[in-house]
Amino acid sequence: MGYSLNNEYEGKTDSEKISILGQKVMNAARNTIIIKFRFLDIAVNQLKVTPYMDIYDALGNEKTMSMDGMNIWYNERYVLKKYKEDKNYLNRAVLHMLLHGIFKHFLIGKTVIPEFWDIASDVAVESVIEEFNERCLDLGDSPERAHLIDSIINDTGMLVAEKIYNALKEGKIDRYLMTELSDKFTVDDHSYWHRNYEPPKDENDNPDSDDKSPGRDETDEEEEKENNPNDITAPSEGEDTEEENDDDARAGTGGMGKPDENDHTGEMPEFSDEDLKQIWDQIAEYVQTDLETMSKNAGEKAGTMMSNLAAVNREKYDYTSFLKKFSVFGEKMTINDDEFDYIFYTYGLQRYGNMPLIEPLEYKEVKKVKEFVIAIDTSGSVSGELVQKFITKTYNILKSEESFFTKINLHIIQCDTEIHEDVKITNQDEFDRYIDNMVLKGFGGTDFRPVFRYVEDMIKRHEFTDLKGLIYFTDGWGKFPEHQPDFNTAFVFLDDNYNNPTVPVWAIKLVLSSDEI
User: Fold this and answer.
1) Measuring CA to CA, how many Å separate 313 from each of 280, 499, 513?
2) CA distance 364 to 335
3) Of 269, 251, 252, which is closest to residue 260 (Cα–Cα)?
4) Which of 58, 208, 283, 493 has a 20 to 30 A CA-CA distance from 402?
5) pTM of the model
6) What is the pLDDT of residues 433-492, one digit of tens each?
7) Residue 74: which of 53, 89, 60, 91 has the closest Cα?
């Protein structure tokens, strides 16, 4: 049976024709992504394609496309215009927004600067798309994009949004290049992501004040002419799509999460960020697992995507809570309110005058650091600035209330392939002086074994009575001891490359990025 464009639109108003065509071209792009990238099927089915009800925002700007974690919102006139210019554009745009979801770029803190984050997240996803090198995504400007990507990789090391954002915020990328990046890589509108943005209190200017905010500077007649649906050839039923009996793929039914009862209203749905985070956590883990197993060939060709997935799926740690696990029990002269029974105490005072039936316990068992070793890897691959930050962070946690006993026995060891310094700390004053006068030594290779031998010798010399913990701060590239020591050991890895260092089964692993130190 032939496909008749005229019969389908017979009796329809121009607005209704535009609506039908808009849905068709968006579903065609969506289905193309499903066919070309099978490992993204769950992500595709999570996002509904939904037209805006009002195509102009409060400032009079014409809306384009956006995603909020549950929907891909689109301006029907805009997508038809883009489809007319280049059919591949919408394929690329849909994939662009899917990757924003998988990398959870839309879930950001209140203090993230919109201008920098928008550029960083767009560059990250466009770098992934360029690496796919698929014909259905080609816009004919790959050399220009590659040149821009190469121009920033030296300042970021990796094309991950967080790293690009930090480079922008620290001024490592100049304004001219920022403008080029924004012009070339911007696809969708991110304003909904920044709805809770709180600028610094000492900042008078809005970071987005440079952005254009024009009203409607084109007449409705000009828009009608430029976006005339009769000038656009709708995709045929077999073009860039799989079988059209896939209801989820065609209708945009969400694959995970809650159904949207107000479909096609053009209003943002009511979902908490925590709900969306849980949904996209599962999707990101699924995609990474698929690329590492079933779609391994695709994963091997998508190194930038795998780096972004590793960054997204890496478990975040609370170093403060972690350090408390290495604390030991001791006694402090204080009333133990948890075990004190006020009923018997007050009853005795009332019944016998000044004689309580039970006295309050004078001792309370509290978790506090008493004997501890901190080993600092000062090999050439660990920067002095980060070592300083780590020591300071550890110091700030230890010096907090109820962290020290009256007497402590803390050893801070600097080492690479050998021991360079061992400083013993017995009170907070000594700790303060150490931080103020610390000088890093070493900067050779990395071998963990000398520290373990050194600490074991200290135990034999009775320099510790009950050593419970050794924390080794390192980049992870070194030789581990063959045998388990008699004390708890944790390796704190500095891992800005989002690798997954392997440790012996008896050791605890904690991975922190430089931003988390």
Assistant:
1) 10, 11, 13
2) 6
3) 269
4) 493
5) 0.61
6) 888 888 888 777 788 999 999 999 999 999 988 887 898 988 777 888 988 998 888 888
7) 53
